[in-house]
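User: My instructor asked us to take a sequence, write out its structure as tokens, and then describe one feature of it. I'm not sure where to start. Here is the sequence I was given:
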Amino acid sequence: MNISSISFFSLCSIGLGVFLIAIVGYLYSVSRNMNQWQATQGIIIKSDIKRAGATFSPDIQYRYSVLGEEYIGTLMTITLKQTYKLQVTQDWIAQYPFNKKVNVFYNPERHQMAVLEKGFSIKSGLILVGAALFLMLSGCLFLLIEYR
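Assistant: Let's start with the prediction itself. The structure tokens for your sequence are:
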């Protein structure tokens, strides 16, 4: 059976939607046990802005150590912080200037998993779920139209 390009892209769209929902579920489950994460002292070693197309996000790196082993962290929160407004991103990174000592919260089971701010952004989660549902529904719609 020869699969058409519409079918292929529809299936990819559905698969990507399922993958995004799985990622949101994973991030949410990780964030639920954050109250058990340990805190350690860290230091900001990079504080910049990353631009990807029309969006901006913080480009933060921090060094911390757990049980004598050093790690480099890059996550402010468990979900991605991204915006279309440069000023918002500047406000985010203003909290974390170069060489600032900070509390780093790390997963006691996986020390390399760390954040500067605990919690799960419901807004980010809903945006990802919305994008996933759009991809899955549009993929299903195109399959329905093609095989009707």
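For the description part of your assignment, you could build on this observation: The first strand starts at residue 38 and ends at 52. Try explaining in your own words what that tells you about the chain.
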